[in-house]
Write a structure and sequence with these properties.
The chain has helices at residues 23-37, 73-84, 115-118, 125-141, 150-159, 185-195, 214-224, 242-250, 268-273, 289-296, 309-313, 325-337, 339-349, 355-367, and strands at 7-10, 43-47, 62-66, 91-94, 107-111, 144-147, 167-169, 201-205, 230-234, 257-261, 277-280, 301-304, 318-320. The protein is of the alpha/beta class. The strands form 2 sheets. It has a 7-stranded parallel β-sheet. It has a 6-stranded parallel β-sheet with strand order 10-9-8-11-12-13, sandwiched between helices. It starts with 6 loop residues before the first strand and ends with a helix.
Length: 370
């Protein structure tokens, strides 16, 4: 490794779990693609815990430095290492909301969303306080900020005193080898059988929590009054989810609403591919990865007019008011009616979201500090 020109990356977000969602998925996708396409720079990847088996393998120009303990890692352990080691990175990229609190080298931070400001009640007080304080200082001291959507950029500008020239928008990509229109129907049938699902069905995929707006979605589905249509709610329980099950019982929809609980990465694209439509009427999203994954599978999508979702779908999906049940109901009807048109638009739209484009933009940004 060139002692004078290597790039440091905090990749803990990518290394936390193998079933990645949200910020973990963004960190992993970007890291993996940078390793794949860039052999002209040297990288050292900093972690606080042992390397997961599916992380990019070590090679010349791509090495790992594991420095425990994990506790308050960005506050003291990582800064200490950056200062005391003779070989320092020329620039440091944090694939999380937190940069090293002190650093002898320029810092770039990635921000996926500011949902903790919108829904503070959904976090423990301790976690909320940390997010607020550590994100605020990271934004203040960072030499540059990567936001994953124009909405997230605007959210940062609205909530923090940041020069807008300091923020670049770099969209996430998606795995084209996994999410596409060539998925085999026989494999999909096996997955549907596994979860007890019959077609036709509408699909929601995500954590079961208040910000996902599932109670109104269930009410809207009930108003459709279509006997043969099912609503599949796929994803693990988040928090404050009890009322979601209660409304299904109250509306006597136990036979029409299917809860799958956690869905594996292997099953997810197959479950998406057979849906009549993918529905995400959330009250807030920093991006909404399942939306582009569904469009890539040739499935029409419905989203809310909140957060980044209108920006992500543009004219390739149906946009509704998530606070009005009737708006969601009418939107579902329109999504089904305009299915073929929306599928074509969706397949065109997802060309914008490419991990290689994301990685190249990130590398170009890093090169400004080398």
């Amino acid at each position: 490794m060139d002692k004078n020109s290597f790039i440091g990356i905090d990749a803990n977000e990518a290394n936390l779990v193998q079933h990645r969602l949200g910020s973990n998925e963004f960190a992993y996708g970007l890291l993996k693609t940078i390793e794949t396409i860039d052999t002209s720079h040297s990288y050292q990847i900093y972690l606080s815990t042992p390397l997961l088996s599916d992380m990019p393998h070590q090679r010349p120009g791509w090495s790992y430095r594991i420095i425990p303990p994990h506790t308050f890692w960005t506050q003291w352990r990582l800064p200490l290492d950056l200062y005391l080691r003779f070989t320092r990175p020329k620039v440091f990229l944090s694939l999380s909301h937190y940069v090293p609190r002190f650093s002898p080298t320029p810092r770039i931070v990635t921000i996926t969303d500011l949902g903790y400001l919108k829904f503070p009640e959904q976090l423990r007080k301790k976690d909320l306080l940390q997010l607020k304080l550590w994100t605020a200082y990271s934004l203040k001291v960072a030499d540059h900020i990567i936001a994953i959507s124009e909405f997230t950029k605007k959210d940062i500008l609205d909530n923090y005193q940041i020069d807008k020239s300091k923020i670049s928008v770099i969209y996430p990509g998606y795995d084209r080898s996994v999410f596409n229109v060539s998925l085999k129907k026989d494999n999909a049938k096996q997955v549907l059988k596994k979860y007890g699902i019959n077609t036709p069905y509408l699909l929601f995929l995500g954590a079961l929590k208040p910000s996902k707006n599932l109670e109104r979605l269930i009410e809207a589905f009930n108003q459709l009054n279509q006997d043969n249509l099912k609503l599949v709610i796929a994803g693990k329980k988040g928090w404050l989810y009890e009322s979601i099950f209660e409304i299904v019982k109250k509306l006597n929809l136990e036979s029409k609403v299917i809860f799958t609980d956690f869905v594996s990465d292997k099953d997810k694209p197959l479950l998406m591919s057979q849906a009549e439509a993918f529905l995400l009427p959330s009250l807030y999203e920093g991006f909404g990865m399942p939306v582009i994954e569904s469009m890539a599978c040739g499935v029409p999508v419905l989203v809310s007019n909140q957060g980044s979702l209108p920006e992500v779908v543009n004219n390739a999906g149906i946009v509704v008011n998530p606070y009005e049940v009737q708006s969601i109901t009418d939107g579902i009807k329109k999504t089904i009616k305009e299915k073929e048109k929306l599928i074509k638009r969706g397949l065109e739209r997802v060309k914008l979201f490419d991990w290689e484009i994301s990685a190249k933009k990130t590398i170009t940004l890093l090169e400004q500090y080398l």
